[in-house]
Specification:
It is built from 2 helices and 8 strands. It is α+β, with helices and mostly antiparallel strands. It has a single domain, classed as Lipocalin, CATH 2.40.128. An 8-stranded antiparallel β-barrel has the order 1-2-3-4-5-6-7-8. A hairpin with a 3-residue loop joins β2 and β3. The longest helix has 23 residues. It is globular and about 30 Å long. The N and C termini lie far apart (49 Å).
């Protein structure tokens, strides 16, 4: 019985983790980022990469991302920011088609100040 309960809990946890990652995979979100001045950007989540684009689709930053429950972990691959390749983590939530990011750990002040509290609206096109 203990083994069955353990397996059931493992399956539920795996499903929830995959579900959280799938909430972001292959989605696009638009809003304002302070880089360093306020600028409209698009956050485009692919399979395991996150691109920050200008509103004219210029690539500003490319990052690797992973999700654990409601924790978004990002690591810079390339881009214009002075951030190192050290990882950062943000709590994320999605409410009314808006993505909110709250910093947990990030040693890069520029990235830490870039994301706004207003969130990023889901972009359907």
């Amino acid at each position: 019985m203990k083994r069955l309960t353990f397996l059931l809990l493992l399956i539920i946890f795996s499903t929830l983790t995959a579900s959280a990652q799938n909430d972001l995979k292959k989605t696009r979100w638009t809003g304002i980022a302070n880089i360093p001045s306020p600028m409209e950007i698009v956050l485009e989540f692919k399979q395991d990469s996150l691109m920050m684009l200008s509103n004219t689709n210029d690539v500003l930053e490319v990052m690797h991302f992973s999700v654990k429950e409601d924790l978004l972990v990002i690591k810079k691959i390339s881009g214009m920011s002075p951030c190192s390749e050290e990882g950062a983590s943000y709590r994320f939530s999605i409410k009314n088609e808006t993505l909110f990011l709250v910093p947990v750990t990030d040693s890069c002040d520029e990235r830490l100040n870039a994301f706004t509290v207003e969130g990023y609206r889901k972009k359907t096109s």
